[in-house]
Structure formats: C-alpha cells, structure tokens
Design goal:
Blueprint lengths: L6 E8 L5 H21 L11 E7 L3 E7 L1 H7 L9 H18 L12 H17 L1 E9 L2 E9 H18 L16 E3 L15 E2 L1
Antiparallel strand pairs: 1-3, 1-4, 2-3, 4-5, 6-7
Helix pairs in contact: 1-4, 4-5
C-alpha cells in the first residue's frame, strides 16, 4: 500500500453494539461484490485472485478502510499498470455498491442480471444498521479528502433488507424433487392395541 493510495471507507454509527457475525457478513459481501467487479474490469483473471483488503479500523464510530489488492491488479495486466486510475476504479466500485443498495430502496422488480447472491449481499451490507439503528456511510478518501458516496439510515436499511428478501424469493429457483419439511406434527390414523408384531409381519399402526 502506498500512502497516497485512495481508500473506500465504511463508516458506521450504530445506536447499539453490532454483532461480530453481522459485521463480518457485511464485509464478506463487499468482498464478494468486489471479486465480480474486479474480473469484469480486468483487475483479476479469476474471482479467487481478487482481494479487498482492510487497511485500518478506527475506534469510536466504526471506521473500516478498504482498498483493492493493487499488486494482484497490476500483475493481471502489467502492460496497463501505468494507466491504472486507482481512484477512478475505486470510485466505480463504490458506485456499483451504491447502485446495488439503491436498487432495493425502490419498488423495482427483479432485473434480469440480478442474482440470489446479489440479494444476500445487499441484505448483509444493510443488516447491521437495519437491526441496530444509526447511520451507515460509504466514503472515498484520497489524500485526506473525503468524498461521500452513499448515506443510509436505519429506515432505508430496513427497506433494503425487506425488498431484497422479497426479490430473492422471486428469483430463487424452485427446489428439485419432493420438498422436505422438518418438525411437523404426526397424526395417528390407526393405533393397534395388540402386542408388538415381530417376525417380519407388518404392523397395523398407521400415521401421517
């Protein structure tokens, strides 16, 4: 990392403590979205090669600074390395996240290219504030200058979670084969009062 490299900052001001699992799920979804973005924009050949790194975590409000693994990006296209606009690419990724979250803030129907994972990622990113209140902000930071990209309060976050969950049910493929259900009640339609049948004979007991 070079000191002048731009950063994507996730700034959280929750009204109550956030569970570690919720925060890690949000960061994991940001990382997954970056993997697809990196491959689509020539920053990596495979999604497994694209890494979104945490550079700093600040106390007080939760400030997490993220940056791409530029070493991998440059290795993927060494001839284009001098032409890589780090700030421009990071801004493009930040706006990609803004577009994903913004889609679920409106009553839009599922897009053709929207996936179940996109819905899960939107839910994970919005969930910490949706569950615990407060405000979430995405900022781009370049040479100590802060450029706000997106601000989401608790009401907006809950709307994202609700609509992403609804859209997910619309596009999720139906399970193949008979549906399995757990913890359902058993109703006896016939219960034999005789002794237990042995010797390979069929029991007359019946239940649904």
């Amino acid at each position: 990392m070079v000191a002048s490299d731009p950063l994507l900052q996730l700034h959280l001001e929750p009204r109550e403590p956030i569970e570690v699992s919720e925060l890690t799920a949000a960061l994991g979804s940001l990382a997954r979205q970056y993997q697809d973005f990196a491959v689509a924009n020539g920053l990596a050949v495979r999604t497994a090669d694209a890494k979104l790194l945490v550079s700093t975590v600040s106390p007080g409000s939760i400030d997490i600074s993220l940056l791409p693994d530029w070493v991998v990006a440059i290795a993927s296209g060494p001839l284009l390395a001098p032409l890589i606009d780090k700030f421009g690419l990071l801004e493009k990724f930040a706006k990609h996240i803004k577009g994903l979250i913004g889609f679920f803030q409106h009553d839009a129907k599922a897009k053709a290219d929207l996936t179940v994972k996109d819905c899960d990622d939107a839910i994970n990113i919005a969930k910490p504030i949706a569950q615990h209140g407060g405000v979430q902000t995405f900022n781009l930071i370049k040479e100590q200058h802060i450029h706000p990209i997106m601000v989401m309060d608790a009401a907006q976050a809950r709307r994202v979670v609700e609509r992403a969950t609804r859209v997910k049910t619309e596009i999720q493929p139906l399970p193949s084969g008979p549906e399995k259900k757990q913890r359902v009640s058993m109703t006896w339609s016939r219960l034999d009062r005789d002794k237990t049948t042995i010797g390979g004979k069929q029991s007359p007991d019946r239940a649904v």
